[in-house]
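A reminder from the course coordinator: this example appears on the midterm review sheet, so study it carefully.

Given structure:
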């Protein structure tokens, strides 16, 4: 089965979030995640279609003044043999299904399903990439510090 990833039309992104690069407006991404035109599409299609932008959940691990960095071995990508201060990946449809019940319980906060899928994607990436095992439904303190609109991708 083809992986489906969360996307938004580039035109919507440009209208609602015109800044390219890093914005330290933490709530900007929340509105985009649950925009009516945000949709899960086949990853191959998302990567080939220049009219779509993909959401990629990234997390930086910080303890006191220390930031966790790691060496990337992602052969065939621009990240191969480079240091990174974040781990992350696409928000996929599995993240949405995993969080549907939790989101329904917390809907009163005004946050939609895709917001909770984003949180699940962050936890999944931590479990996969950093070997923080057993997080399950335990939601660590996650703080949104900003949004990166990378036009190189």
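Designed residues:
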């Amino acid at each position: 089965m083809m992986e489906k990833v969360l996307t938004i039309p580039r035109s919507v992104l440009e209208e609602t979030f015109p800044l390219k690069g890093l914005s330290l407006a933490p709530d900007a991404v929340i509105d985009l995640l649950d925009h009516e035109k945000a949709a899960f599409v086949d990853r191959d299609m998302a990567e080939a279609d220049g009219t779509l932008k993909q959401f990629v959940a990234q997390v930086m691990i910080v303890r006191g003044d220390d930031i966790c960095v790691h060496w990337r071995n992602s052969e065939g990508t621009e990240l191969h043999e480079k240091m990174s201060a974040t781990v992350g990946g696409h928000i996929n449809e599995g993240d949405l299904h995993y969080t549907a019940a939790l989101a329904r319980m917390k809907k009163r906060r005004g946050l939609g399903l895709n917001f909770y899928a984003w949180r699940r994607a962050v936890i999944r990436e931590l479990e996969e990439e950093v070997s923080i095992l057993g997080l399950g439904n335990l939601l660590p303190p996650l703080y949104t510090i900003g949004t990166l609109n990378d036009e190189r991708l």
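The longest strand covers residues 4-9. The two ends are 24 Å apart (CA to CA).
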